[in-house]
Amino acid sequence: MHAPDAPYFYQEVLVSPMYLAGTGGAGDAGFAPVAHWPHHALGDTPCQLLVTSPDHRIRIGWFGDDFELWKINASEDALSAPRWTATFNHVTPPEIVAGLTTSLARNYAEADAYDDNAPFLAAPSLYWADAVRPLTDAGWTRDGGAERGTVEIVAPDGQAGVLIDNRLSGWDEKTVTLWAGPPGWGTRAEAVFTAHTPSHLIAATAAVMADSAPVIRERQQLDRRLEHLITLAPVGPTAGPQVSPAPTPLDVRRTAVTQAVHRATRAPITAADLRVMAAQPHRVFGTERAEQPRARRRRPAPGQLAGATTPPLTPPSRASPGYRTNRKRPCVKGVPSCPPPPCSTRPQP
Length: 349
Hints:
The chain has helices spanning 6-9, 28-31, 94-110, 133-137, 199-210, 249-265, 271-279, and strands at 12-16, 39-41, 49-52, 58-62, 68-74, 84-89, 141-143, 150-154, 160-165, 174-180, 189-194, 215-218, 231-234. By secondary structure, the chain is α+β, with helices and mostly antiparallel strands. α3 runs antiparallel to α5. Mean pLDDT is 76; it is low at 238-244, 261-267, 281-339 and 343-347.
């Protein structure tokens, strides 16, 4: 890759349809709904990261180097065999995985710790249409060319679909497959659910595929073989009125001191005064003395003694510019730089 082309390839773009956007090189979106669950880093193993529910009944594994990038299952207890398993390959966008993990996190929060009939362990519906209703509601239609004993529903663009296999022969058989993209190792995304997967969990995953909202990717993260099938749009600045950044405590202090002194002296502040205030915010014009900032402890630089300190600041003399002796010391409430009362009037020198 040539250096002049680097900004182009790392440019962020909006990709639609989302199911052809690929993984984006990370799985953060899939883990975000369960970020508060226990995380187990397994190091240099096939399953590099394992996220579990607090009672370990739900397990979400990240296999960073395998074809099946995600493996998610649920069981009756921490030591039981999985009741169902869902796998997502290395091309599946993590936003689709987040559809399942979001529903799992919600189901776990609603379930009792000793409930054997938790929502994430519920029996699937007897009607296959319940699992893919978000797709049919979005205009996906049934393909009449599916094999006997199977049902296939295809997206309007023909680049995504779901295959339902009703020819059951075992509890761990793959029954529902969500797919997107042309056939091929690096172009087709697949999410596979085994028998006994609750229908509402499949529907939650399918609902994300039916969503028309684009996702953000870098250009270099997109497969060039899919460029003619996707739509790209630049990521522009957020529309709307510009909001000024919130003032810092130092900004508030400087503003309060400037306004208080202006009210006390009843004299306009000159440009020279403002320049001095910006350079020395601890000085208050129109008073008998200037407040000194507290000494700040700093880590000694290399070669400097640990006990050495910088010399203290010298208070301005009466000959200093801006030092006024013909004013009384004002009492300014609410200004951190002013000392507390009493605010007695000092004799004129």
